[in-house]
Specification:
The protein has helices at 20-47, 52-67, 71-86, 103-110. The chain is mainly alpha-helical and 111 residues long. Helix 1 packs across helix 2 (52-67), helix 1 (20-47) crosses helix 3 (71-86) and helix 2 packs across helix 3 (71-86). The chain starts with 19 loop residues before the first helix and ends with a helix. 21% of the residues are buried.
């Protein structure tokens, strides 16, 4: 059975107006996400782990601790890299603008 929960999914591009404190926090979070993705990509290649579950089991706690990512962003980084590792083209090395948000993560970071 196909998951129907994504039928209302859409992508948006927006410019945020934030105070300097928020900007610093967001920029450091974006960089931590990119660094975690690069770590995961290298780990996946080194250990031949290309599936999301395998990467999650091997790296979740490490990337939470080493990169100080919130749980949801750690999971998004793992999913992003797993998709990249299975695909034909790669965006490695990941840049800070490669961060992915869902509605919960976006709201938590901007409030």
């Amino acid at each position: 059975m196909k998951n129907q929960s994504n039928k209302n999914q859409s992508n948006i591009c927006c410019k945020l107006a934030v105070v300097p404190q928020q900007r610093e926090y967001l920029e450091s979070t974006f960089q931590a996400f990119a660094d975690a993705c690069n770590y995961l990509w290298e780990y996946g290649h080194r250990h031949q782990l290309f599936q999301q579950w395998g990467l999650h089991q091997a790296c979740y706690r490490t990337i939470r601790k080493q990169f100080s990512l919130p749980a949801n962003l750690a999971i998004r980084a793992i999913a992003r890299v797993a998709t990249d590792l299975k695909g034909e083209r790669s965006v490695y090395p990941f840049q800070p603008d490669s961060i992915l948000f869902d509605s919960r993560t976006f709201l938590k970071l901007t409030l």
